[in-house]
UniProtKB/TrEMBL annotation:
<feature type="signal peptide">
    <location>
        <begin position="1"/>
        <end position="21"/>
    </location>
</feature>
<keyword id="KW-0732">Signal</keyword>
<dbReference type="InterPro" id="IPR006664">
    <property type="entry name" value="OMP_bac"/>
</dbReference>
<feature type="region of interest" description="Disordered">
    <location>
        <begin position="175"/>
        <end position="197"/>
    </location>
</feature>
<feature type="compositionally biased region" description="Basic and acidic residues">
    <location>
        <begin position="175"/>
        <end position="193"/>
    </location>
</feature>
<keyword id="KW-0472">Membrane</keyword>
<feature type="domain" description="OmpA-like">
    <location>
        <begin position="90"/>
        <end position="217"/>
    </location>
</feature>
<keyword id="KW-0998">Cell outer membrane</keyword>
<dbReference type="InterPro" id="IPR006665">
    <property type="entry name" value="OmpA-like"/>
</dbReference>
<dbReference type="Pfam" id="PF00691">
    <property type="entry name" value="OmpA"/>
</dbReference>
<dbReference type="InterPro" id="IPR050330">
    <property type="entry name" value="Bact_OuterMem_StrucFunc"/>
</dbReference>
<dbReference type="InterPro" id="IPR006690">
    <property type="entry name" value="OMPA-like_CS"/>
</dbReference>
<protein>
    <submittedName>
        <fullName>OmpA family protein</fullName>
    </submittedName>
</protein>
<dbReference type="InterPro" id="IPR036737">
    <property type="entry name" value="OmpA-like_sf"/>
</dbReference>
<dbReference type="InterPro" id="IPR002368">
    <property type="entry name" value="OmpA"/>
</dbReference>
Length: 220
């Protein structure tokens, strides 16, 4: 292999590794908006969404900052904080939709009586076009297997997304995912000693679809 081909191969390997590390590693700072997985959220123009805490000194690689150089320490330069690029207040607050209101037991088809709650959400999204992306997260209680609960939570979140899309909301404004039984609202011991219908009622808060704004552009 000649020197030119060798250099090209080395450069390609370095670029590929840097891109992979940025895409897979969660962001733990406060300068950028992150989703429920800890990943930096991007707007429709593929720009990283800044918070009011953003300053040029906090800019990260992949969002406009230079590639990190571990062998050369970088001394931060104090600069005047830039104006926030995102809105100061969300268009609407986080919404918790009860699974019982939307679905029959162990089902993921939206019930006719549950559609009223989703129609309210449709109205919000129509009223606030500045909301560019919402996150729908399905949750289940601990009864049943981990695998079954994960699948049920995903199916329910996707069912809500499909209903919103059927009402004219653009699919690219909605991200759906399931958390299974991993993020309960109830605390250990809350339902201790309960069985049957009593236990089901106690665990009701854990069975839900959560709706929250992920990306919202500033309205001037």
């Amino acid at each position: 292999m000649n020197k030119t081909k060798l250099a090209f191969a080395v450069i390609s390997a370095v670029v590929s590794f840097s891109a992979f590390a940025h895409d897979s590693d969660p962001y733990a700072g406060d300068a950028y908006l992150t989703d429920t997985r800890g990943k930096v959220v991007r707007n429709a123009y593929d720009e990283c969404w800044r918070t009011g805490e953003w300053t040029p000194a906090k800019e990260i690689y992949g969002c406009g900052g230079a590639a990190p150089k571990k062998e050369v320490p970088v001394t931060p330069v104090a600069e005047t904080p830039a104006a926030p690029s995102g809105p100061a207040k969300p268009a609407f607050e986080k919404v918790m939709l009860s699974a019982e209101a939307l679905f029959d037991t162990n089902k993921s088809v939206v019930k006719s009586e549950g559609k009223a709650s989703l129609d309210d959400l449709v109205s919000k999204l129509q009223q606030f076009p500045q909301v560019e992306l919402i996150l729908l997260t399905g949750h289940a209680d601990y009864r049943g297997s981990d695998k079954a609960n994960q699948k049920l939570s995903e199916n329910r979140a996707n069912a809500v997304k499909e209903y919103l899309v059927s009402k004219g909301i653009a699919a690219d404004r909605i991200q759906a995912e399931g958390k299974g039984e991993s993020e309960p609202v109830t605390k250990p011991g809350d339902c201790k000693g309960k069985k049957g219908a009593s236990l089901s009622a106690c665990l009701q808060p854990d069975r839900r679809v959560q709706v929250e704004i992920a990306v919202q552009r500033e309205v001037k």
